[in-house]
Specification:
The protein is an alpha+beta fold. It is built from 4 helices and 16 strands.
Length: 217
Amino acid sequence: MIPHLTVGTQTFSPSRVFCIGKNYAEHVRELNDPPPEQPVVFMKPPACLMPPGIPLARPRHGRVLHHEAEVVLLVGRESGNVSGGRAWDRIAGITLGLDLTLRDVQSDLKRKGHPWELSKAFEQSAPIGQFVSPLQVPFRDAIPFECRVNGEVRQSGNTRDMMFPVPRLIQFLSSVWTLVPGDLIFTGTPAGVGPLQTGDRVTLSASGIGEFIWTLE
């Protein structure tokens, strides 16, 4: 089930799901990876999107499933070669989402020099909350957000700590692709990623955006 994306009275059909890797320095350090010189981009199909409240099935082709909480942007206008100063004009909505990752599978793929799809683009790997207008979000360039598992805080991030902030991401992506309404951008995860077990309840929250919950079956 691919959810429709709504912001107020506007409705969008999901198009492409762009994901940004290694966008928080502390997360890069916990992965023992070098910092990137430009945004690291990978993609997921829209079929990976899962709205809140839908139970998540644990994938069977890996053992170590990690949560990665992220701020997610919804593109509202066709955009090519956008300057950084005009970037926010292209964004129709903001929410929170999870980039679920099979870490053991990803590590094996990295070691072999293979693409990441098996570890990142499996069924239900992109849970996503409801969108709000950027105008409703205070301090949109410094959004604090949180990921809790069974009530315990696992990740506490703030978008001001992104190595490539929103204007730079929009500028970079739109220099390669013409962004279209319905495109989504997962902007990267802060430090604190960790394993999920069957029965775990994952809660994402941010002031001005909302609270969204999923349970792993």
